[in-house]
Amino acid sequence: MVNSDKVKDASKGALVVLFLVTMIDMIGFGIVIPFLTYLVEDLAGAEGVTEIGLWVGLLMTSYSAAQFLFSPFWGSLSDRIGRRPVLMVGLIGNTVFFALFGLSNTLMMALAARFLAGVFNAVARAYIGDVSNPHQLATRMGIIGAAFGLGFTIGPFLGGELSAPALRWETFQGTIFETYPYLLPCILASALSTISLLIAIRNLPESLTPEMRKADTSRTWKKQMKNMYANSKKMLGEGSIALIIWVAMLFTFGFTIMHAIFILFTGMPTADGGLNFTEADNGRIFAMIGVTGIITQGFLIGPMTKRFGSRRLLTFAALLTGIGLVLIPYSQSEYAWLHILSVTCLLSIGSGLFQPSSSTLLAQFAKAEGYELGVVMGANESLGAFARILGPISGGVVWVLTSNGTYPWDYHTAFHLCGLLMLCSALLSLRLSDPIMVDANGEDFAQEE
Q1: Do 189 and 245 share a domain, yes or no?
Q2: What is this structure's pTM?
């Protein structure tokens, strides 16, 4: 008989390792954000390419698209050979392709490196499911979510501070880091991924027993993609659940458009209406966004949900985020920092309130209406992935088409589009009612927050 205390201890130990691995991995991912646009501008200039926004959108979209396409493959493979080796392969892939991205000397090489980094996506969430009972799962997923938030705060700060080191420190002049100005943060990302790999090799046990590892014909890539499509189509026709999914899709679409255009705007010369920010400036901004998000989800979401309820909070969060996004390009250079920190706080607080509120409502409606939670959440994640794929490329295209025009069809346009999508999300959320639950006597009552 297996000692239950030992299993419990082992799962806690695995969770600590996964927290560290996930945080370090997200630091590596976030490191590239502050300089991605500048790297594209450098490579595009050398190749005579003028569609900067389009390429920024492509590089951002490629990572999400690769994750979406290959997650079913890794999931199926991990069922057969175990979670641990697939996690290791993912970390090795991160190590290699982060470094390759920093060494990119053409746009196609950079695009390939980003896509392949997305391909090597680990299976941390599946691992947590293996070592947690149903009562522990939500809490433990939340802990991993905190690791994401912390890593995403530290990563952009490091990426900004370490970009173009030859221009800031004499030690790097005349070295490979002068030829490849964004190699240093990429090398750090690779080093962190290597540390994650060593931690996992030493301390992370396999979560699937040999008896549990088997080829599941229902988990082939083709069948999983068909199941995702079928479940998503079904959920989009299911009343309140469909409404929440559409609300979340519109929100995600608008928010990820911002990912492509934010630094395109902040990096513009002040004479053209931008802020002339450097990579380090943008890294500090994204770090502040991360800190605000952590504070929001750590301290604000609980009291605000109790006071207002998830349904009202969802509408408020979408509107607050939309206001922040629309105001981004309306900055005067002399008040640039005050303005940009204020508006990014608005959108960061809004986003921090929106995500847990939408997940809570989705879970409540699934329970109230008798749907399997895994199917509902899976459909929501699949459709959210489409939004994350379409958002950056849409933002890049709109930027290319309008950024050189005259107001309002200029660099403001893409941010206006973000705000419009947030407004649509907020208005659609007004159609939601409180989920109706059933008590022990079989009588209906409105779900209290």
Answers
A1: no
A2: 0.86
